[in-house]
Amino acid sequence: MDLVIRRFSAWSTTGDETEIVSDEDWKTWAASPAALGREGKPPVAFLPPAVRRRATRLTRLMVETAFACTTDEERGSVRTVFSSRHGAIHVAIKILASIAKEEAVSPLQFSHSVHNAQAGLFSIASGNREASSSVAGGTDTFAHGFLEAVLHLERRPEQAVLLVTGDEPVPDNVAHLVHEPEAAYATALLIARDGPGTRLHFSLDPKGANAQPCAWPDAVEFIRFLHAGDDALSIGRGRSQWRWVRATA
Amino acid sequence: MGGIRYPAQMPMSCSLSALGMVNALGSDTARIWQRALAGDTGAMARRPDLTAGSQGLVGAVDDTALPRIPAHLQRYDCRNNRFTLQALEQIESEVTEAVRAVGPARVGVVMGTSTSGSRECEAAILHEYLHGELLPEFRYEQLELGGAAGFLAELLELGGPALSVSTACSSGARALASARSLLALGVCDVVLAGGSDSLCGLTSHGFASLKATAGGGTNPFSANRDGLNLGEGAALFLVTRETTGIQVLGVGETSEAHHISSPDPEGSGAAASMREALADAGVGANAVSYLNLHGTGTRLNDSMESLAVSNVLGDALPCSSTKPLVGHCLGAAGAIEAGLCWLAIGAASDDTLPLIPHRFDGVRDPELPPIRLVNDGETAAPGIVLTNSFGFGGNNCTLALGSAPS
């Protein structure tokens, strides 16, 4: 299936917590990629102060990159897919700890514990009333998010889709159960059927040999691929291999 | 390579070829349909063992005969996945045949869930609080949302995508939308799609903290309504390109841009979702025979949904909420309610569609725009059936189901 990445953005930090935000920052990182930091916290300066104060790190990461990747006009008119492996796990574990201690559960925390909290907050902040899905796919969450974005293009070929992927390191008490490179990061891709941008062919190979797993999240590997100008990218930490090939024309 | 192609013209057919389901009404579709058609609210009960923090009734699954997760997949063991496995077992022969026909590499999974293994994580965290460490047998795959789809894909050794969709209470409906697009794009030739969710502390305490749970039975569209009843269960569809049988004819999906946990009081997002489903199915409001309401029994949902329904579909269309029968199954609700609609369409004769009655105390809230709630024994002429699902974050999805056009 052929599509175009019209624009992309990403937000993370280096291992020593230097922010990587601009295209120049990411080009520098892509020239000698290394593991990412665990702490970064984007400013989300455009959010009203009351919303910003309550925003979790994941919300800041995802909403910051979503806004950076879109113009005002696009922001209100795109369909959106938010993909995250862990989602609101920090909020959920706080609520479960409250329950264990027989303390009252905060209604505000509960409202923000849903997997689509970031999508909802983006919709509110941007006035976007279009279709939106929030997804997860285990260790292959980025690829499944990309697929869901493509499924939206199937339903509405003329409407661009904003794919936002993000995660942060899981809470300490479950960290020993997660075997995947962890970082605080988010990426955003504005994907369309055609128009200006990077043309790619996307496919799924159920029998493909597993690609060499990288030491940073797959979504960031995709940003590296876009900056580095490689011909093709294969990703797959699970049962299948996902492949993007740059169109030559 | 699994090439992905855009459809040349109209989307191809999307058949819901088989259905397995478990909820408070039963653990097989025959029993569930019999009790649903009778409007049997007898399954709703107080279950403090499953829902600490909530006083009202809940729709709990009879878990005495739930299947066990196979030993090699213990890391996926959670109440949700046991429901899913029970639903799968009901349609095992159809699924096996469909997978064999196209090959496992061409079969995908899409599951809607909001709780995934929150119930099991709650036990692990309680153990940590009491004993200083998580339950030793706790695994991350039990908890993570991706496990809802990943479990089925590993169990059946499928090569296609395994996508979990989690948009709160619209997740299960949205899973069917994704399944339909997977077939239309040619990524898959067969998809297993549905939803699963369990009663657990997080949601029962959470909805209680929002003062959204009823003190007794839920009572949608009554002047006396006081909130929702939680429920649980799973519905799993075998989704194929067969041109016969019951089809997903249209999908409507909108965001509200309003509030993180309450709907737009004007119901504009809900109305747009229903309109889009009709447009996608290529029919007008007069083609609709029945609407399965979101019908949670909260004041806000009652007012905005009746306003949206009367605006889009008028005040003569038979409507009912099935949540007084099975509770609000959250991430599974959209799939379970699509399942109840599937059973109704399947039970229709050439000229009669049986309708599930709307159960409440009969005291209509006079402030609400009038919508026609289904009475006992009522039927309609067969046509399109709509089902509404609205979730936190302002995420709406309406499905249009019906028999394949002849």
Give a concise summary.
Helices cover 35% and strands 23% of the residues of chain A.
User: What is the CATH topology of the largest domain in chain B?
Assistant: Peroxisomal Thiolase, Chain A, domain 1
Arithmetic mean of pLDDT of chain A: 94
Order of helices and strands of chain B: EHEEHHEHHHEHEHEEEHEHEHHEEEEE
One letter per element, helices H and strands E, the order of chain A comes to EEHHHHEHHHEHEEEHEE
Which CATH top level class of chain A fits? Alpha Beta
Please work out how many helical segments of chain B DSSP would assign. 12
Polypeptide structure, described:
The complex is a heterodimer of chains A (249) and B (406). Chain A contains nine helices and nine strands. Chain A is an alpha+beta fold. In chain A, strands 1, 2, 3, 4, 5, 6, 7, 8 and 9 form a nine-stranded mixed beta sheet that branches. Chain A is globular and about 60 Å long. The two termini of chain B are 35 Å apart. In chain B, a hairpin with a 3-residue loop joins strand 15 and strand 16 (395-403). Chain B is an alpha/beta fold. In chain B, strands 9-16-15-10-11-13 form a six-stranded mixed beta sheet. Chain B has a five-stranded mixed beta sheet with strand order 1-8-6-4-5, sandwiched between helices. A three-stranded mixed beta sheet of chain B has the order 2-3-7. Chain B has helices spanning 29-37, 79-90, 92-102, 118-131, 140-143, 147-155, 171-185, 201-209, 268-281, 299-313, 323-326, 333-346; strands at 15-22, 44-45, 58-59, 107-112, 162-165, 190-197, 230-231, 233-240, 246-255, 288-292, 318-320, 353-354, 372-373, 379-380, 384-391, 395-403. At the A-B interface, helix 5, helix 6, helix 7, strand 4 and helix 8 of A face helix 4, helix 5, helix 6, strand 5 and helix 7 of B.
